[in-house]
Amino acid sequence: MAVARITDVDVIDIRFPTSRELDGSDAMNPDPDYSAAYVILRTDAGDGLEGHAFTFTIGRGNDVQAAAIAALRHHVLGRSAEAVCADPGSVFRALNGDSQLRWLGPEKGVMHMAIGAVVNAVWDLAAKRAGRPVWKLLADAEPEWLADQVDFRYIEDALTREEAVALLRKGKDGAAEREARLLTHGYPAYTTSPGWLGHSDEKLVRLAAQAVADGFTQIKLKVGADLADDIRRLRAARAAVGPGVRIAVDANQRWNVAEAVEWTNALADLDPYWVEEPTSPDDILGHAAVRRGVAPVRVATGEHVQNRIMFKQLLQAEAIDVLQIDATRVGGVNENLAILLLAAKYGVPVCPHAGGVGLCELVRHLSMFDYVALTGTTEDRVIEYVDHLHEHFRDPVTVVNGHYLAPTAPGFSSEMHAASIAAHRYPDGSFWAADAADADLAERRKGTNR
Questions:
Q1: Omega before 427 cis (within 30°)?
Q2: 80 forms bridges with which residues in the sheet?
Q3: Which residues, 6+ apart, have CB-to-CB distance to 334 below 8 Å?
Q4: According to the model, what pLDDT value does residue 2 have?
Q5: CATH number for the domain harbouring residue 25
Q6: Which residues form the Mandelate racemase/muconate lactonizing enzyme C-terminal domain (predicted)?
Q7: Partners of 422 in beta bridges
């Protein structure tokens, strides 16, 4: 029998015009156009199954991200589909091991995010071939196999393979009961939808009240542009949701260390639950100083942390109270496994970053695995939720009473509808072509009226 092989690696630049409604706006990113550098792994197996994944960006530069993914094609084409699905870590190691491409990192930035996209596509294909969602594929796996998916290089001073296996073995205790509870009740969520900086106070209050009515027990507000505005907005949000709902604040890296301490303490009377990304995500010691300076307000970070080594140091330096993984920032599922294991060893809760394009769809799998088969708890753990762009995915998230329901479809929930890809492919998809034609017509009319 012929061995089924990966025959194509398609890469597509997909963009959505979210900046026009100020969705996603914050102190550092006032006009994001949520985008995806999208990859499809195709095989000649004849079963119709493909591996889909993407890296999230916010517009300009998505073409650069797509080019980085395309530069990895030669490492994947011709590989046995069965072999890579049996050991996604083999792809992770091969891509990270290209010495010439590694020079562009190493293990960070555009190249590392490209690796994550390809690795996540392998996991999507593997889960589809296994007939299970990724969270269950991980939860059902043997501890030794999962540990072999992790690259322990550079983190063995904080977590050894033996310790990882022990954590995963312990996580098997009661896993069946937790899986049943997950399928019944879902996983806790919080929402950022009320809190974008571009929203008016009226819209903020309306959406905050709606979030509570929808069952959310935590919301998040963007801060960092103007202190007086932040105090006013946080006060309005607190009045809208009452004292029993947590309000996190997110500065999106806006501040220097001293400024972060001063600004956060100025908000402290309004009881912010955590302050997120108070300074540069690369500043380990800065985060530690902020944490000491703003306690009891918690410090959270992670959506821009580049790799497992940076997360290791944040944990070793006791620099964060909340660790925020991102499904597409690091080297895919394999590296996020390493980060989840590090967080479990250090006892720091993981509250993933989501929103964007498809990040909610992906990251729920990682948190659900963590609950079912690693830490066994959802205490002080929530997944971010933002209510837009889900309609473009074949397996979109469902949130009920402030909880993510567990996906049951095979795969990583990363596959977009073909019609959405055709419409939003940049710059020649039907939406963007019509948009360009409208802009050209408006420009010609302007010239006629002069």
A1: yes
A2: 5
A3: 88, 89, 92, 119, 149, 150, 151
A4: 83
A5: 3.30.390.10
A6: 201-297
A7: none
The share of the chain scoring above pLDDT 90, in percent, equals 92
Residue 372 tokens read as 């079912």
Q: Torsion-angle region of residue 35: left (phi > 0), alpha (psi -120 to 50) or beta?
A: beta
pLDDT beyond 70 at 1: no
Q: What is the helix (H) or strand (E) element at residue 288, kind and residue range?
A: helix 284-294
**Cα–Cα distance list, 241 to 220, 269, 304, 386 (Å):** 12, 16, 29, 18
Separation of alpha carbons 109 and 255, rounded Å: 22
**At which of 131, 159, 187 does a domain end?**
131
pLDDT, residue 26, reads: 64
Catalytic residues: 222, 353
Is the CB of residue 46 less than 8 Å from the CB of residue 7? no
Q: pLDDT tens digit string along 206-253?
A: 999 999 999 999 999 999 999 999 999 999 999 999 999 999 999 999
In this prediction, residue 224 carries a pLDDT of: 95
- Residue of 61, 53, 39, 112 lying closest to 330 (CA atoms): 112
The neighbouring-strand residues paired with 41 are 9, 51
Q: Are 392 and 368 in contact (CB under 8 A)?
A: no
This prediction has a pTM of 0.96
Q: Tell me the C-alpha distance between 390 and 396, whole Å.
A: 5
Whether 291 and 179 map to the same domain: the answer is yes
Range of the domain at 255: 175-418
Note whether 209 and 120 are same-domain residues: no
What separation in angstroms does the CA of 389 have from each of 15, 161, 187, 315, 384?
11, 39, 20, 33, 15
Q: Which three-class secondary structure state does DSSP give residue 312?
A: helix
Answer yes or no: is 197 within a domain: yes
Give pLDDT, residue 290. 98
Residue 151 lies in a domain: no
